Amino acid sequence: MNQERNRADLIVGLQWGDEGKGKIVDHMAQTHDIVCRFAGGHNAGHTIVVDEKTYALHLIPSGVLNPNARNIVGNGVVLSPVDFIKEMSQFDDLEGRLFISDKAHLLLPYHALIDQAKELLKGDKAIGTTGKGIGPAYGDKIARVGHRVGELHHPEKLTDKIMHYFEENRAIFDVMGVASPKRDALLAELEGYRSVLSPYIVDTTLLVWKALESGDKMLLEGAQGTMLDIDHGTYPYVTSSTTVSAGACSGLGLNPKDIGKVTGIAKAYCTRVGNGPFPSEDFGEEGERLRKNGHEFGTTTGRPRRCGWFDAVAMKHAVRINGVDQIALMKLDVLDGFDEVKVCVAYEVDGKEIDYVPYDLEDATPVYKSFPGWEKTEGVRKFDDLPETAKTYIEALEAMVGARMGIISTSPQREDTIIRGEAE
Ligand code: IMP
Fold first, then answer.
1. How far is it, in rounded angstroms, from Cα 204 to Cα 251?
2. pLDDT at 117 over 60
3. Domain that holds residue 394
4. Are residues 242 and 367 in the same domain?
5. Quick check: 296 and 307 in contact, CB under 8 A?
6. Which atom number of ligand 1 is nearest to the Cα of residue 228?
7. Which of 32, 46, 147, 232 is labelled catalytic?
8. Is there a catalytic annotation at residue 18?
9. Backbone dihedral region of 117: left (phi > 0), alpha (psi from -120 to 50 degrees) or beta?
10. How do residues 72-95 score in pLDDT, each as one tens digit?
């Protein structure tokens, strides 16, 4: 019976975000009937070029570029109406194929002001957020003082609630320099959001249940990465949502049995934007070379990304937490031309070597194993055509992290992808 059950495919980031999920998700979105976002907000982002036109996607699922796919923004998301409407304006045929959960939380302009003010107040302890208001919006949700997208249907009532929220928090907002909105302006703003968004606001939980029951192929598109997860990442230097595969259940109203194949996305090295522990970061010439070769600058904020070596300890943690069936290893070609390629195989903490991710990674130093490098993998489309040393590197990673690398990407081009298929 369970064998026949229709299940959703899931894509999830296994590192600190920016693993190159976009390339895989865009590809898979072409063959799925429904594509869903389940967590995060417009802190995520990737660009897609179709027929020489560039689209910037932050919150609208990648299925938007497949005219036959429906796209769902789930309840686990925080949605900034102003940014979402801007993103929507890139497309002119969204009605009937874009659906926003009435239970998703609103991220309003004051959340971004609070985010930026808090970061400033933190000084050298700043998280290095995207400044988009993600933490304050999720904070309000958990503190039960947030507002949901469905409330846009009643702008007067919502305006009163927000004005009350500002009154209650006036003393705190004064310290942060965040002014109260004027009632009339706030009402007009919310009415503006309602007039554009109301045709798209529905109970998406019912929609995903029905779609699965009717046999539709569903793709769940994760955002950020496992090491940025609110529970399993490098807290407090994390984002404020559940980025791991379990978040797809709570963020859409699915149950664990609804999840099918889990594809975890990982780069052949590591990057991180923002502050916080990153044991395998390389501060020298090699890190600089990874940044340059990999064009490692943030899509959402333009910040240079911190770069370093593949962290097999963190990857093993991510594979287990997400229930990864296969890894898509991205940007292998960025390692082309290195004499040797390093992998972090353990951490040293308090003079002891450990092979798991501890509660606090702040003082963990990496223990490396070196592998011989290779000349060129760029553009290779068959595993057998890879240089022997690259094959050895990949097979060693698989053994260390406990998952097969079923997809290997060797350039930004969609065709330059090795698909190895199922394990024999
Ligand atoms: P926030 O999500 O804006 O609160 O930022 C919290 C942390 O998550 C910061 O270190 C950000 O740089 C990081 N972050 C948030 N979104 C992304 C992403 O899409 N890619 C990589 N890092 C991200």
1. 10
2. yes
3. 8-79+204-419
4. yes
5. yes
6. 8
7. 46
8. yes
9. alpha
10. 999 999 999 999 999 999 999 899
Distance CA 221, CA 62 (A): 8
pLDDT at 197 over 70: yes
Comparing CA positions, the residue from 5, 48, 4, 6 lying closest to residue 30 is 48
Mean pLDDT along residues 366-391: 97
Residues 364 and 244 in one domain: yes
Looking at 198, 221, 240, the residue that finishes a domain is: 198
Higher pLDDT, 92 or 265: 265
| Atom number in ligand 1 closest to CA 273 | 12
Element (H or E) spanning 127, and its range?
Answer: none
User: Does 211 share its domain with 280?
Assistant: yes
Residue 303 amino acid letter: R
Same domain, 208 and 186: no
Residue 93 in tokens: 């045929």
User: What tokens does 190 get?
Assistant: 């919310």
Reported as a single tens digit per residue, the pLDDT across 385-410 is: 999 999 999 999 999 999 999 999 99
Overall number of domains in the chain: 2
Claim to verify: residue 114 and residue 240 sit in the same structural domain: no
Same domain for 189 and 66, yes or no, is no
What's the pTM value of the predicted model, to 2 decimals? Answer: 0.95
Pocket of ligand 1 (CB under 6 A): 16-18, 43-44, 127-130, 132, 134-135, 224, 228, 237, 239-240, 273-274
347 CA from centroid of ligand 1 (Å): 24
In 3D, which of 397, 402, 406, 410 has the Cα closest to residue 424?
A: 406
Question: Is 87 domain-assigned?
Answer: no
> Which amino acid does the sequence have at 77?
V
Which domain CATH number covers 158?
1.10.300.10
For residue 130, give the ligand 1 atom closest to its CA: 3
The two structure tokens encoding residue 65: 């570029």
Which among 373, 380, 375 is positioned nearest to 411, based on CA atoms? Answer: 380
Same domain, 270 and 165: no
Q: How far apart are CA 308 and CA 283, in angstroms?
A: 8
